[in-house]
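ugh ok so i messed up the first submission bc i forgot one of the chains. this is the corrected input, ALL of the components this time, i swear. 1499 residues overall. if the numbers dont match what u have on ur side tell me asap before i send this to the collaborators (the ones from the other lab, u know who)
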Amino acid sequence: MHQGLKLLGVGLVAATLAAWTEARAQEVKLMDGVTPRPGDERTTAADKFKKNAPWKIGMSHFGVNANTWTVQMAHDAEAAAKLDKRVGQFILLDANISQAKQVADIEDLIAQKVDAIIVTPLTPTSADAGIEKAVAAGIPVIVHTGLTETDKYTVDIQGGGVHFGKVMGDFLVKQLGGKGNIWVLRGLPAHPEDINRYKGLLEAIKGTDVKIIAEDAGKWQYDVGKQVCETLYLNNPKVDGIWSSGADMTRACVDVFQQYGAKIPPITGEGNNGFFARWIELGFPSISPEYGPEQGAAGVRAAVALLEGKQLHKRYIYEPEGWDLEKAKKYYRKDLSANAWFPTSLTEQDLQKYYGKH
Amino acid sequence: MKRPYIVEVKTTEMSQLGRLFVGANSRHGLWTVPLLVALACSLALAFSTNEFVSSQNILNLVAQAAPLILVSIGQMIVILVRGLDLSVGSVVSLTTGILSLNAPVYVAVPGVMLAAVVIGLLNGITVTTFRVHPIIATLSMMGIVQGITMFVRPSAGGSVPSEILFLVSGKLFGIYMPVIWVIAAILVAWKVVHGSRFGLHLFAIGGGETAATFGIAERRNVLAAYVLSSCFAAAAGIFLAGRIVSGDPNIGTQYAVDSITAVALGGTQLAGGVGSLHGTVIGCALLAVIANGMNLLNVSAFIQTIVKGLILLAVISLQPRKTIGL
Amino acid sequence: MKRLDDLSRAALRIPPSYIVLLVLLVTLWMMRPNLMNVAILGTFARQVVPLGIVVLGQLLVISSRSIDLSAGGVILFVNYLISSGLLYEWPILFVVLLCLSVGLSVGLLNGLLVGKRRASAVIVTLAVNIILIGLVEYLANGKPPGDVPDQFRQLYNLRFGTLPAPVIFWFVLAGVMSGFLGRTVFGRFVWSIGSNPISAHFSGVPVERTVVLAHTISGLMSAVAALVQTSSIAVGSVRFGPELVMNSIAATILGGVVFGRPAQVWGPFVGVLCFALLFVVMTTMGVQEPGKLIAQGLIILLAAIFYGVRSKSNS
Amino acid sequence: MTVQPLVQMTSISKTFGGIAALENVDFQLLPGSVHALMGENGAGKSTLMKILAGVIQPDGGMIRKNGQIVRFVSPREALDAGVSTVFQEHSLLPNLSIAENMYLGKEPVTKFGVTDTAWMERKAKEILSELGLKLDPATLVGNLSIAERQFVEIARGISARADVVILDEPTAALNAADVEVLNAQILALTKQQKAVVYISHRMEEIFKICDTITVLKDGRNVDCVPVSAIRPKQLIAMMVGRELSELFPPRSNRTEGEVVLSIEGLRLTPDATPSSIMLRRGEIVALAGLEGQGQRELVRSLVGQYTPHGGKVAVRGREFAFPLSGELGIREMQALGLGFVPEDRKLEGLFLDLSLAHNLTIGLHSRHFELKPASAHREVIANSMKSLSIKASRPSLPVNALSGGNQQKVLLGRYLALGADILIIEEPTRGVDVGAKAEIYKLLRDYANAGGSVVVLSRETLELIGLCDRLYVIHDKHVVTEMPAESATEHAILEAALHS
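and heres the new structure output, hopefully the right one now
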């Protein structure tokens, strides 16, 4: 209750500020597909965080080595920081999928008196205390790739898991004509991203005759996904569509159907080069919701903008359309390995360095 | 529990210095090496960074090390009696899960402790009465408790009673709460391990089978050790719940391994009977200083893991034992 | 009377895994009779081949009264070696040999530290595991893992008749290991140490050397498991769950091999099959992750209690 | 005799694995008395005292303490009832300090509930200094020498505020000066009307400090006499004097074989007198003497299981300097044809849950490289089972299903199968019934007749006399004399040992 009041107060102040300064707001482009959140007019104050270069920017990454996507997101961030000569130092700390470590990392960044902190929270609450502490210390905080419950941050870019799941769910509903049975391959149990994507799916199939007949955790891993898909297939191969919460599981499931020479039902994918290869090769009905590692770069761009003294919106959303086969073909890179993700802002040189096939 | 394999050792002459170095002069194990390493690291950090000695950073260090210290103390108690507790991590998670259910604090905290006592008792009974190897007993318990945690709190979130928030981030008599937690935990543990008959009996049981001829009830004491381990893990869970202000079913995952690591680093022998509270705290401090130091020195996120592993391997290889195996 | 005694003795020698497997098979047969054929069960078995191969090493180490927690690191590292592209130019045979020698060296290092240096096996293999994972993290920063050469994938999907090649490979490997344990001097050494290390020492068994060798073979098995795992995923990864190592310990114990109990291959082999079938039964029943964790924990615990009580009544 | 006995044990019986260790033994202890319990090795002294101390429970009989019938199920209970024991086996915990060991289980606490370490250490220091020891009570027992540990055990037993103190061979590890100190303590105890049970093989000590002697033989009472009424020679006669039974095979008349094993200048402790021993082809040599005098350490030095202080050994011409390496000792010696049969069959010898075949052949396997195929050795197994007449239904039977005698034969068979031509055997017939004993004796004699050589170590002097060709009497860590077995008597051996 108390906290709610406080939030309301903060909101009111911010809203007033925003209204006052709106005229001066110049749109800063963070990334394709990232737009100010509709209905939220709050902005940051211009020049509030302005500082002379060189800047020291810190980033608390929830887990660089959680999977290949998280690695690339870290690379995107580093590359963006390197691109801007005014960024004197870019400190990337890896919480290694430990909430406790993330709290510690943010504290360490504050102790080092960085000029801006970028946080990708592991869970909606794990970084809250740190974010509040940083803001209290006068350090702007940019949040992306992950939700928070606080809104003490300076700027957030929300690529919603709910939206991601809903794009996939809407696709299935459309493909199935609003009626049919689907399997659900979920990600890591208890992971907030998985839960949000699932929420999006439930939203999409609400009120339709699309029914979930089987559901299990493939943990976003190829082998576990395959184990689940194989078991479900051998149990009862009749299925109208598959909602998969991650690209590796989609590949695994496609492989299972191929292995039994069965027709691949509509199945959802993700913006991953390896998945694109299979999709283009086999042409099964699918969609790729967009969730690019370029967000790493967007976070750095936002930090730079704030330090330049530019005005940003407080909240941005990243809810692009899903990609169809045509768009996938445009982005697909035959010369890169399966672990490259799109969209990315890595330079051609970096792409070749990281993902090039020799 | 079978006795580990001991080949009769030669009564080699050992220099006084050598004895000190291998910790043969006390049953507290070889805590001098990790202490020296920790001090050396701290000194190096103090000179090479501006931030390390700041009060802010030291408070951070304490708050970062506190949950690990709590879990490790319990882990050490179990290891002293030739046991091992792999279920501490899931007890930590379960605790944050229960606390985030919006129950009033006077219900939630006793509930959490009760759960911990039950888990500890089950571990202890499996190990003593059914003579199941501690690794297996607590590994199974880890899975079971983790499963229950996921029922209680399927994903991170919820909110924790505000009293607990205060317990972690408030101040008492002008002292920051994490400092109070650590001091309180150390005092309690000192009393239990080094300042009570029970503690002495733990060492005696770890020291050999003849403890029974002194009239020490092995079964009861081992049982108590497992209960204590669970309770310390629950205390760590309470602290963490206050720190992340919510419940999280995965928050404890690392603590089983990290606590064993810290305990072993502090000179406590996994074969039982040799170890110390100060060694364990030093072990935790060393791990915290390494993590904090690597952050402050901007050691690449990508080699922090290797450095941690190498330090662990080096310190453990400096502790000679008589037994082969676990 | 003597006969009866012998019979009950023999009955108690049946590893708990056999009973668990039987129960699971009956359950599955009642729920889904259509799944009860060789091709389908073979497919299920293929899912656990990497685990099964790790267990072949783990059972050696455990019955030598040690433990190996480094399998995850070895698998991750080998997977990285293959998928990073560093070795794309190499003939596949060399790649395989290199991977195997990595496993061998890691196992040897573990063995020397545990057997000769007498450091704690738990911490040594844990630390080695951490170092290997860290190494992959470090290398993956410069060069993230990429694709796996196609040959691996093709091998994985090969079938002989209705049986998948990896299952046959696993079975053959288990047979080799069984023969190795049963027919070589090394097997006698492992049995001896498992039964009574002091007696082993007085019989002239080279205890330290046997522990070193057991760890070395365990490391090698991890590398073999890594090859199979990599073929199955067909892509590089940067993270590997800790479940495999923990499950390998659990399957070994479910198979009747406990710290200090003579090693045998088929009990743990069946123990691994139990894990495969357990997964199938639970998925078929729609049991979600929490239920799976609880059920698995309870089964291991009950099997261990059964064994614990047994060893008590024997001594 | 109106004094009520402190302890009255009546008709105590105890059987171990079918062999009677005690049969209807009576024992009575009066306040203020130092009571010697005498008898040969294996006569049942230790068993009787373990029963009194609550370590083991009797199969029959009754114990009264101060007139009350008691039943001690644990050492703790016995201690609470006032019976304190100093055992031969070291029962101290190496990872605790001297003071903690002395007060373990009954530690005092301060008013804050903290163990009162200062008090314990002060008290321990007092008791230790009364015993003439300048040990720091905070020292870990693991860092003490054997003699120091022995003293701590004595200190612990004496300080227990018990009215009965059992000292089981307290002086085995002590030198003469230490013994004086101990005697003074014992006298102090008797002044407080406490009773002391004193088990020792040192005759002069018995006659100096004890007032009553109870003699046991083969688990039965022989007599109970006041010390003043008996002379040492008479006492030895009471302890020995058994008939040489027909258990033993005849010695063969043979010519002197070549020396296959010789030990020269072996010093077991830094200040021990050097010992030399040699073994010829075809003979059985015994290491006789009282328990704990260094026989065990001597043979274990040969296989790297004990670290002596200098000397050398030659096995069939190949010389090694002591000490030998621990890990390689056994294997090197096996390769040279020397087999070591450890005393504790269950803990050090057999693989109880493994098959008879495995137990018989593991020695053969140990000679090979790990990766070599393990041959089944069916012939060896069949031959061994036949020649050793091991009674078992099949070779795949686990050995814990066999009787003690058959187990012992399996253990011997392992080393015989190795083709070892030198056997070092500790306690060849421990826990074995009479029939099997005779078989084992015959086996060893046949082995010697076939050209093998044996060193035997046993607590049963009679066994050594009957079985062997030659005896070395060991006392105080060195060889005191050598005698041919044919003319040796228990009496002569005891005298040789005790008069040094």
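quick check: The two ends of chain A are 59 Å apart (CA to CA). that seems consistent at least. The first helix of chain A runs from residue 2 to 21.
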